[in-house]
Write a sequence for this structure.
């Protein structure tokens, strides 16, 4: 995650997107060198231990997250690629940088299975209640969770779920409770993540952006 401003530093994490591909999967990459304000050397993308080939003159998307600001995106042209020893690309920025709105607290409606664990004391004993729940929505800051257990505001729970096969385990604090009328659940819990790892938060935000982009391409939003 880039800190402090919207400019790169060597070693910063970015994502590369093959714009011409149907699969707009963001591939992890990294800034290896900075030639000038528009030209960069980046690591070539690798997926499932296989090199993702990108051709010379291909136009690719470059996205990255700036801490406490949001996500930025620009288009770049691939000028050169090297496959010997280290797979790396030389790219040139060819568009203005667009700043997406800060999405950390933007809640995206989506149904994701979640395993919720709640530890409480009964006498001198600690007991754990495990419940299979589902999300109503999710953001980089927390989620709204359907549940049948009658929690209290302030309860600390443990949430386990997957985002694109990436396992996330985080503590959460119940900050809001609403009764709902669904076939399966009685309550909707507003959960704020506690000490969520940066890479997990990044994964959630990136997932939201990707889903939004796909919906926008289909004209659904």
């Amino acid at each position: 995650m880039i800190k402090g401003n919207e400019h790169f530093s060597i070693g910063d994490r970015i994502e590369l997107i093959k714009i011409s591909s149907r699969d707009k999967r963001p591939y992890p990459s990294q800034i290896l060198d900075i030639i000038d304000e528009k030209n960069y050397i980046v690591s070539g993308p690798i997926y499932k231990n296989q090199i993702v080939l990108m051709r010379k003159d291909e136009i690719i998307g470059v996205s990255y997250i700036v801490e406490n600001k949001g996500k930025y995106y620009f288009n770049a042209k691939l000028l050169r690629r090297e496959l010997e020893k280290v797979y790396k690309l030389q790219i040139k920025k060819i568009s203005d940088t667009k700043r997406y709105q800060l999405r950390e607290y933007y809640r995206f409606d989506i149904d994701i299975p979640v395993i919720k664990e709640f530890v409480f004391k009964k006498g001198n004993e600690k007991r754990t209640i495990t419940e299979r729940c589902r999300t109503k929505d999710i953001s980089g800051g927390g989620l709204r969770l359907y549940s049948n257990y009658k929690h209290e505001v302030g309860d600390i729970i443990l949430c386990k779920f997957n985002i694109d096969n990436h396992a996330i385990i985080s503590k959460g604090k119940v900050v809001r409770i609403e009764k709902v009328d669904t076939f399966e659940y009685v309550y909707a819990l507003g959960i704020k993540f506690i000490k969520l790892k940066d890479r997990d938060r990044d994964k959630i935000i990136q997932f939201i952006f990707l889903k939004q982009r796909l919906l926008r391409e289909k004209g659904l939003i």
User: Anything to note?
Assistant: The chain has two domains: 13-99, 108-216.
